[in-house]
Every structure is written in C-alpha cells, then in structure tokens.
Amino acid sequence: MSFSKQIAKHFREVHFGGNWTVSNLRDQLSDVTWEQATTKVYSFNTIATLVYHINYYVFIASKVLQGGALVGKDEESFNHPSILSQQDWENMLKKVWIDAEIFANLIEQLTDEKLMDNFAEEKYGNYYRNIHGIIEHTHYHLGQIVLIKKIIHKENII
User: Fold this and answer.
1) How many domains does the chain have?
2) What is the CATH number of the domain that holds 150?
3) What gap in Å lies between CA 144 and CA 124, rounded to an integer?
4) Does the pTM of the predicted model rise above 0.85?
C-alpha cells in the first residue's frame, strides 16, 4: 500500500471505523438526534458545532488538494447553518460523509513527493503535516463529542 493510500485509510478510519481507538465519527453520531446535537452542555460547543468545525477544515483542505487556494478563516469554522430539524442534522451529516470520502480520495492521489511540498504556503508546512493535523484534529474533537454525549445521557438533558 502506498504512503498516500495508508494516510487516506487512516483518515477514513476516524470517520467511518476500523481504527485502533475503536471510535469513529459515524458510529458516535449514528444515534445523536438533532435536539442532542444542538444542546448546549456547560460552556462546551454543541455536538453540531464540533461536527461542522471538523468538516470545515476537511472541506477547505480538499480545495487545496484540488489545486485551489487555501481559503478559510478559523473564526468561521464554528459558524454552522441553523439546525432546526432532524432533516437539517441528517443533511449536515450527509455532507460530512461525502466531504470525507472526497478528501480521502484526493489524499490517495498524492505522490510521496507532493506530500513533502508546501501546503498552499511555506508557513503552513507540508501536505503531510496538514493532512495528519486534520486527522489529529478530528480525533481530538471526536473525544469531546463522546464526552458531551455521555453528559447528555447521564444528566438526562434531552
């Protein structure tokens, strides 16, 4: 298996399963209702906000992998569209799964040499660093999602 295919596999696993942490976004979000996804717990971000935030970086990085410019702002990464129904929530999740597969497919096309090239600008480091950063970022927020779900269930918030 090529290096880029292994990285894409690692990315897919945090989204769809099969990683050694035995936790992934799709499984963790499969039983989350739109009410739970939008419930504020303490001062934490909502599950919906975290999901949008995770995918924000996947989406903008995909544009770079397609040859486009790096266009995004950290402050925009938490500003998701309103979720007012189960359909809104399911539509957000559908976009996340589609964007994740697109990103993984784009990763698979990278050569070893390209993985070492600058990602958009030198100050951002190389493709390898940024792709792995996105994977680490996803794991980090996945942990938060798991904890928020546990609090919602334990406290019978919803």
Assistant:
1) 1
2) 1.20.120.450
3) 25
4) yes
